[in-house]
Amino acid sequence: MFLLFEADPHTDQTTTHWNVHRIHGYLTVEPVDSHIDRYGNNRNSALLGWLMVFVFLTSLSLLTLFRQARMLYTEWSNHAADEYLDWFREFNQFCDLDEERSSGGFSG
């Protein structure tokens, strides 16, 4: 036997299909909707829980990835700044030597 209950149009409830069968002489009604299991539990709540776990783990891994990228960028920029400072010091030393040569202060 198969029953169809139409929902009240003034509410947000949807149409639900129910299986009715006899177990040990008693009529038993079970929802057929895919999101409700045979015990009347809503399966969507379990899916929502797994979705929340997935979103949490994804955001945690992305946060870790961004932190790692920021550390690598900081390390790279510090290394680049050190190289620039070394080049600037060498350039200043070269300019100082060039000034000494042109002023005649350098004997050679």
TrEMBL record:
Superkingdom of origin organism:
Eukaryota
- Residues crossing the lipid bilayer are 47-66
Q: Which UniProt keywords apply?
A: Membrane, Transmembrane, Transmembrane helix
Task: Give a yes or no for keyword Transmembrane in this entry.
Answer: yes
Q: What is this protein called?
A: 6674_t:CDS:1
Highest classification ranks of the organism: Eukaryota, Fungi, Fungi incertae sedis, Mucoromycota, Glomeromycotina
